[in-house]
What does this fold into?
Amino acid sequence: MPSTVSSRAPQSRAEPPQDCRVCARLAAFRDINRSSYPDFFNAPVPSFGPADAALLIVGLAPGLKGANQTGRPFTGDYAGDLLYETLGEFGFARGTYRADPNDGLELVDCRITNAVRCVPPQNKPIGAEIKACRPFLAATLGQSDSLKAIVALGRIAHDSVLSALGQRRAAFPFGHNARHEIGSLTLFDSYHCSRYNTNTGRLTPEMFKAVFAAVRQEIG
Ligand code: URA
It folds into this structure.
């Protein structure tokens, strides 16, 4: 584990408080959503899966009517359909994904988090928000002594992981299905499994599965 990330970060530092107001724009958006959608979760979405997992998947940010509604990463978001199906296929999830945090789905040796924990307007966090949320990502990376592999879904997640690990971005260029050795960790990159990327064919299910096949081979 690189020395820039504490290997035993306390649990509290890995999750923002439910009324985190570090990012004024995201806090204001949350206030609006709390009044427009009072039944939604409308808070920083916590990581999902065992804290001591060997694999950490890093997404971008919760979708308004997906993870921000359900309170579980990728749950109810279009991107979750391919992600959870793929995790099941490679033995990283057990049970049936039903886009509902009470579906009983369990992650196996795998944890999912987001680079930005609060839903951003138009699904687009700005640089200052990605930076402000990074200490939570760094603490999440430091939680598992068993961590072996990270999958970054998209360039923003890739860049934020590198910064959280204290690495230079220029040394590890993002590319779909690229792998980077960083100390004892392997960082795998994938195009984000967003609706846009899958609908345009930038990311096919086969391309996405190839990444997880490589991860499974690495983790064993
Ligand atoms: N939902 C999430 O939780 N994260 C993403 O990156 C996309 C959708």
Notes: The beta strands are 55-59, 93-94, 106-107, 110-114, 149-153, 179-182, 185-190. Residues 59-63, 66-67, 73-74, 77, 79, 114, 153 surround uracil (CB under 6 Å). The chain has a mean pLDDT of 95. The two ends are 19 Å apart (CA to CA).
